[in-house]
Task: inverse folding
């Protein structure tokens, strides 16, 4: 860490003088803008004091340090901030000499004791002091109780002033909303103040005439992401409606969690629902569109990543569930959430497999396959190829969102005959290879078909084949998904399945992908005893090998 | 120097108490009767003595461990307060023992300030502030305490001391939010801080009222509050007025408010200064809500008006030297506020003024009757 410069010290000293007791909104606004850099400066100061031998030396190097810290301790805006307060106390601890050697150090000790008294007690002979003394609580309890009451009063006020302004369609009367939000910046991590933070966010979401300070939004979002602030769902959603960057950060956090932690795949649904994003998306169409924009960009960047696809699929499922659970009169039509795809494709894909009878699955998938093929044919003939590509991408994106039908197709492929396999293999190929990159679509189709035939013979007849060679082609994910479906759903004996898996899954990278797919299948298929036993057996195999 | 000897021997015995472990707090649970009660009283006495010693030079012998024990004893006393402050019979014993201990300590230590029962609720805080203010407290001890506050010791040990960081956080937050005013008309622009203070006051009275036999104790509470407000008498009066006007929707404070008003009546001087110093709107509101206050207010206005003297040379009503009287313009302002509040207060004021004017001879000429002139201002 860099040493403190004279200029820095001078700058912050001037600021401390200028801020005074932080009684004016302007001073508070200025502190809120400087708070983070002040904290960094205090950290540097702590570090410098740690490496200084004694207080006399510290006072010699920074003659203003006492005055500087003293002023900050008298500034409630600074002492209300958790990090600022801790650093101030730490500086005081470092400056306090356990064995003062001279008058300077004795004076410094005396001064620190006075500051501590100031931090903990009211001035005597004031009504506030008398009340605190006689109400029969320890001071900490008294102030925490007072704060809770104050927050309740202000929260009610913020809520009421919203109701009046919405009813009368007048300018919002609580014109101090902005100043209140500034005052709340250092308080966002204070548990007692939580309800007021939520009320401010909700207020500004419903009443467009008042504004919250930028620093307030940043502070709330940071505290929320680091789990230092717990707010009710409505307030979190209000924050996302108010601040686009907060929403984007929440989506990125979810992405990071899922992509960086393999365990997250095991309970993906919980992770996704806990992020509150599906619920927010169901209630606010624009949130859904923004979230999906972030997903879209992530998917383009890592097309082959199975966890990414799994996340998108689970997110969409959770979103559809919340949407369906809403009251019909409050529910926006699903069409508005998917503005870029043709309606005829939307309905069959958004239908949950559980809403279609099992015997009709094959028919349903054939229907989807035909619609899709027709759609792709039309796009090829389109003159504007750029527009055509975009349209194909959107349809493919929808297919990834509705990956549950791809899962069904892969499962059905284990048991269907050759003529019925066509549309299913087509869907699977398109899902894994949406672009005709390198004009390889014919080759992809051939690989898919070959893999299917080989796997069938592998699982159903005791012949060996070269599936592991296929696993090394560009269609690894496709082949792997077919393989696992065969391993789980084919009537082959467990020992046969184990043999096949051990023979075929030799590459460590492929094993990892297989594990990931298994986790997501387990999520989807939980409840079925026989399937579960198979799944567990496969997981064990992959683990031990 | 016999008292010095006593002092030293007492201090020694007290020091030995610091060196023993704090009595198991559960003792207090069974304190209500017999021998256990004697144990509790003995512990109380020791802790009060301990607090007294913490403010003397003898503290120079303390170390980190001694301070830890002292804080445990202080916490024990806080517990006693929490458990028994609303229980008149146990409280009586505690107060008696406190009084006796205070007397003894006053003999031993010059300038000793006695501890009241409500001080017990804040024992650890008093101990902390005492140690900080005592120049004899060893520097390593202060450094140790400071380390516990500043370096994030939020475990059980930090809990047993005073949580300086948390306390300072809540105080700062109260300062930041307390100044915001609520715009609702019913609260006439009072700050959130003032509103909360008045709730704390009413709740305290309510808690005391919820147990029988606490009348005198509640009165004492208000007396102490007034006394300790010192120079903040105006804010104390505003606090009382706000509390009387509080219309909290979540709790019913009527009984507490009645008690507050009775207490005010018992302190005629205070009621009179309220009538003189509170803003006219506040007095009007109080008059609307509380008939007792209305009478007192009207009396005060009448008294002020009758003491005014007409100065013929300047053509003005002049106050006599007595400062406890409102001037003519102030009276006009106060009456105007009553007048504008609508019925029934307006009608009542008018009736009374007309009656007074008639009693004064019913003159219509300026400068003869103060009532005539006031009525002219109002019409």
Result:
């Amino acid at each position: 860490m860099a040493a403190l410069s004279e200029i820095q010290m001078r700058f912050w000293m001037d600021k401390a003088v200028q801020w005074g007791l932080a009684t004016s909104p302007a001073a508070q606004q200025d502190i809120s803008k400087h708070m983070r850099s002040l904290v960094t400066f205090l950290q540097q100061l702590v570090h410098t004091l740690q490496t200084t031998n004694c207080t006399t030396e510290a006072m010699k190097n920074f003659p203003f340090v006492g005055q500087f810290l003293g002023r900050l301790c008298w500034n409630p805006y600074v002492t209300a901030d958790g990090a600022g307060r801790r650093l101030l106390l730490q500086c005081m601890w470092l400056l306090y000499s356990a064995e003062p050697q001279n008058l300077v150090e004795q004076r410094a000790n005396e001064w620190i004791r006075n500051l501590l008294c100031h931090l903990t007690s009211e001035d005597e002979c004031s009504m506030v002091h008398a009340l605190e003394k006689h109400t029969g609580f320890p001071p900490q309890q008294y102030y925490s109780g007072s704060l809770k009451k104050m927050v309740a009063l202000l929260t009610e006020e913020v809520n009421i002033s919203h109701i009046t302004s919405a009813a009368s369609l007048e300018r919002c009367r609580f014109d101090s909303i902005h100043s209140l939000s500034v005052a709340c910046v250092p308080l966002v991590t204070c548990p007692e103040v939580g309800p007021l933070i939520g009320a401010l966010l909700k207020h500004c979401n419903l009443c467009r005439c008042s504004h919250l300070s930028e620093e307030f939004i940043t502070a709330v979002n940071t505290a929320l992401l680091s789990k230092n602030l717990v707010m009710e769902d409505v307030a979190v959603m209000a924050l996302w409606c108010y601040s686009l960057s907060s929403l984007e950060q929440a989506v990125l956090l979810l992405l990071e969690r899922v992509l960086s932690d393999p365990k997250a795949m095991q309970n993906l649904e919980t992770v996704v629902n806990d992020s509150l994003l599906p619920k927010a998306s169901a209630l606010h169409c624009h949130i859904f569109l923004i979230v999906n924009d972030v997903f879209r960009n992530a998917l383009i960047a890592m097309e082959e990543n199975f966890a990414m696809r799994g996340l998108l699929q689970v997110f969409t499922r959770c979103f559809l569930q919340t949407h369906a659970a809403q009251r019909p009169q409050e529910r926006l039509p699903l069409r508005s959430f998917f503005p870029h795809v043709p309606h005829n494709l939307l309905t069959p894909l958004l239908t949950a497999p559980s809403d279609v009878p099992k015997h009709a699955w094959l028919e349903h998938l054939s229907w989807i396959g035909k619609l899709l093929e027709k759609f792709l044919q039309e796009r090829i003939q389109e003159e504007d190829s750029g527009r055509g590509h975009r349209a194909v991408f959107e349809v493919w994106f929808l297919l990834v969102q509705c990956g549950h039908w791809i899962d069904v197709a892969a499962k059905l492929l284990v048991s269907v005959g050759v003529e019925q396999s066509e549309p299913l293999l087509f869907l699977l190929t398109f899902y894994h290879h949406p672009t005709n990159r390198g004009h390889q679509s014919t080759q992809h189709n051939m690989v898919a078909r070959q893999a299917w035939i080989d796997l069938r013979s592998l699982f159903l007849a005791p012949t060996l084949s070269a599936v592991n060679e296929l696993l090394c082609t560009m269609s690894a994910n496709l082949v792997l998904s077919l393989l696992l479906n065969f391993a789980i759903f084919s009537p082959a004996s467990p020992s046969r399945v184990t043999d096949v898996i051990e023979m075929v899954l030799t590459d460590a990278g492929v094993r990892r992908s297989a594990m990931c797919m298994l986790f997501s299948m387990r999520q989807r298929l939980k409840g079925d005893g026989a399937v579960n036993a198979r799944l567990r057996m496969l997981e064990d195999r992959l683990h031990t090998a | 120097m016999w008292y010095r000897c006593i002092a030293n021997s007492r201090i020694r015995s007290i020091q030995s108490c610091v060196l023993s472990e704090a009595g198991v707090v559960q003792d207090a649970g069974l304190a209500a009767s017999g021998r256990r009660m004697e144990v509790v009283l003995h512990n109380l006495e020791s802790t009060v003595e301990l607090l007294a010693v913490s403010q003397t030079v003898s503290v120079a012998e303390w170390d980190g461990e001694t301070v830890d024990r002292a804080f445990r004893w202080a916490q024990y006393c806080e517990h006693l307060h929490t458990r028994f402050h609303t229980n008149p019979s146990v409280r009586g014993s505690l107060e008696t023992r406190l009084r006796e201990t205070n007397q003894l300590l006053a003999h031993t230590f010059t300038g000793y300030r006695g501890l009241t029962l409500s001080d017990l609720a804040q024992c650890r805080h008093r101990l902390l502030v005492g140690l900080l203010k005592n120049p004899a407290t060893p520097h390593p001890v202060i450094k140790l305490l400071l380390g516990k506050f500043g370096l994030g010791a939020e475990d059980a040990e930090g809990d047993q001391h005073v949580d300086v960081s948390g306390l300072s956080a809540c105080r700062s937050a109260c300062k930041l939010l307390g100044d915001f005013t609520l715009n609702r008309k019913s609260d006439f622009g009072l700050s959130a801080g003032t509103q909360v203070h008045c709730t704390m006051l009413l709740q305290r009275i309510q808690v005391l009222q919820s147990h029988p036999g606490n009348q005198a104790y509640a009165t004492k509470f208000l007396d102490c509050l007034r006394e300790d407000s010192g120079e903040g008498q105006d804010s104390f009066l505003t606090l009382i007025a706000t509390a009387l006007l509080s219309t909290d929707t979540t709790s019913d404070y009527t009984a507490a408010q009645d008690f507050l008003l009775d207490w005010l009546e018992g302190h005629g001087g205070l009621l009179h200064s309220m009538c003189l110093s509170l803003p006219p709107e506040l007095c009007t509101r109080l008059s609307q809500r509380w008939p007792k206050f209305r009478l007192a207010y009207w009396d005060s206005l009448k008294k002020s008006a009758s003491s005014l003297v007409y100065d013929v040379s300047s053509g003005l009503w002049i106050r006599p030297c007595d400062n406890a009287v409102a001037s003519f313009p102030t009276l006009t302002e106060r009456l105007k506020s009553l007048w504008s509040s609508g019925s029934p207060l307006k009608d009542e004021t008018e009736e009374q003024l007309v009656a007074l004017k008639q009693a004064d001879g019913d003159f219509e000429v300026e400068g003869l009757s103060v009532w005539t002139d006031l009525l002219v201002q109002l019409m």
